[in-house]
Design a protein that fits this description.
Strand content: 35-45%
Largest sheet: 6 strands, antiparallel
Structural class: alpha+beta
């Protein structure tokens, strides 16, 4: 009887370990494709107080969250990359949207700052 319980426990463990759902596999594969710059995506950072977008990035990019920042690496050409960093606060929220399916140039990307969200500064010299 102990052997049967042991075999059932081992079999259940094997099923739990090896039983990945298809959605998990697809999610992993899509993430890998996106991180390899094969998916056109849109990243939007929104001011949660005003509900207005503050930053938008469209293109083939990989990103990570690190120390309250979104760090995005954008592929701009064959072997050419640019890095963008966006600081996040308690009053910002962000979203990444997969735009795959659209037939666009994978090297084209846009970065948009909305002028009304940027505080103007004046730089003066002591000369």
């Amino acid at each position: 009887m102990k052997k049967i319980k042991y075999l059932i426990a081992v079999f259940a463990l094997i099923l739990m370990i090896g039983g990945c759902r298809q959605a998990e596999k697809v999610s992993y594969n899509v993430s890998q494709e996106a991180d390899n710059f094969n998916v056109i995506r849109r990243l939007v950072v929104i001011n949660a107080r005003t509900d207005k977008p503050m930053f938008e990035l469209i293109g083939a990019f990989s990103f990570e969250l690190k120390d309250n920042r979104i760090i995005a690496i954008v592929e701009t050409g064959d072997g050419e990359y640019k890095k963008h960093s966006v600081g996040l606060t308690d009053w910002t929220m962000w979203s990444v949207e997969d735009l795959g399916g659209a037939s666009v140039n994978k090297y084209k990307y846009e970065v948009n700052f909305l002028p009304e969200m940027i505080v103007p500064i004046e730089i003066t010299s002591k000369d």
